[in-house]
């Protein structure tokens, strides 16, 4: 089983020059996980319906994926997160 860390970006936030990210981890196929973020539910991602996956990493264990998620969240810097996303686009 593969595990993923992913970063979602709110497209509306891009229009308003905001960096609204959601960072998570999952063992689901990323498109299925995104579908759940876009569905009706309670929680952080329920506030917008235009999330898109802009970054992901693969891991062999849930522990590794969770550790990486916590590391990225600890940065508390949207510019550092943006650099990570841009580094993977090349």
Automatic annotation (TrEMBL):
<dbReference type="Pfam" id="PF01541">
    <property type="entry name" value="GIY-YIG"/>
</dbReference>
<feature type="domain" description="GIY-YIG">
    <location>
        <begin position="1"/>
        <end position="82"/>
    </location>
</feature>
<keyword id="KW-0812">Transmembrane</keyword>
<dbReference type="InterPro" id="IPR000305">
    <property type="entry name" value="GIY-YIG_endonuc"/>
</dbReference>
<keyword id="KW-1133">Transmembrane helix</keyword>
<protein>
    <submittedName>
        <fullName>GIY-YIG nuclease family protein</fullName>
    </submittedName>
</protein>
<feature type="transmembrane region" description="Helical">
    <location>
        <begin position="6"/>
        <end position="23"/>
    </location>
</feature>
<dbReference type="InterPro" id="IPR035901">
    <property type="entry name" value="GIY-YIG_endonuc_sf"/>
</dbReference>
<keyword id="KW-0472">Membrane</keyword>
């Amino acid at each position: 089983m593969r595990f993923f860390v992913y970063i979602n970006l709110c497209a509306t936030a891009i229009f308003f020059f905001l960096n609204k990210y959601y960072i998570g981890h999952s063992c689901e196929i990323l498109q299925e996980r995104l579908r759940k973020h876009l569905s009706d539910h309670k929680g952080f991602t329920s506030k917008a319906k235009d999330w898109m996956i802009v970054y992901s990493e693969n891991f062999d264990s849930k522990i590794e994926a969770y550790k990486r998620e916590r590391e990225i969240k600890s940065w508390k810097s949207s510019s550092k997160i943006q650099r990570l996303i841009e580094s993977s686009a090349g």
